[in-house]
Amino acid sequence: MNHYTTILNGASLAGLIAFALFLTSYYVLSLNPFGAIKFFGLAVPALLMYTAVKKYKEVEGEGFLTYGRGFIAGVMFTFIYASLSAMMIYLYGLTVDGSFVDFFINDNLQSLGEAKDQIISFMGEATYKEMIEEFQKFDLASLAMGDFQSKTIGGFIIALVVATILKQKPPIFDASDE
User: Fold this and answer.
1) Which residues lie closer than 8 Å to 57 by C-beta, 6 or more apart?
2) How far apart are CA 53 and CA 161, in angstroms?
3) Is the pLDDT of residue 103 over 80?
4) Rounded-to-integer distance, Cα 14 and Cα 6, Å
5) DSSP state of 32
6) How far is CA 178 from its chain centroid?
7) Relative orientation angle of helices 43-59 and 67-95, to the nearest 10 degrees
8) For site-directed labelling of 9, which of 15, 57, 70, 167 has its Cα 20 to 30 A away?
9) pLDDT of 104-157, one tens digit each?
10) What's the N-to-C CA distance of the chain in angstroms?
């Protein structure tokens, strides 16, 4: 497991930064931490994933990295980062302050209310009422799981890009053979 230390360290740092962004967006900026602000948070794990996989390439791959190994390293990074962030959000809501769940529900219900006419005209009143019921059912566990899922999807996409950028096959012939 020592050869994945750079991936583990980078992913752990990304998870902590994602949790800090969650706290900052909710307490300092008074924004819905599960709203559009979440997409700005993808830049940090992308940069950290690139750095960690690049260091993994240099240390473990001796300067070379196949696409598959790069993608697997990115997936490991993503799973650790998303798991740590979601777990910290869940534990924070469970032990310290779970008021962000109500904030999330009220913010989304307000957004639905503002777009009520458009939603009803496109999807019908029954669908609009279903949407309201679904938002009212949200709890801490479903928010943490949704955060994990969205970070995982974003991380997979980033892993595909990072593996493409950093792939480098070793030369077929060794330079000393000449």
Assistant:
1) 63, 64, 65, 70, 166, 168
2) 12
3) yes
4) 12
5) -
6) 47
7) 130
8) 167
9) 888 878 887 787 778 777 887 788 788 888 888 888 999 899 999 999 999 999
10) 36
| Six token digits for residue 66 | 């196949």
Residue 38 has pLDDT above 90, yes or no: no
**How many degrees, rounded to 5, is the angle at CA 38 between CA 165 and CA 139?**
130
Written as six digits, the tokens of 118 are 């458009």
Tokens, residue 25: 């967006």
Contact 76, 159 (CB under 8 A): no
> Is 0.70 surpassed by the pTM of this model?
yes
- CA distance linking residue 72 with residue 30, whole number of Å: 37
Type of residue found at 109: L
Number of H helices and E strands in the chain, helices first, is 8, 0
CA distances from 2 to 9, 56, 115 (A): 11, 11, 52
- The C-alpha atoms of residue 167 and residue 165 are separated, in whole angstroms, by 6
Longest dimension (CA), the chain: 76
Of 157, 165, 170, 169, nearest to 78 (Cα)?
157
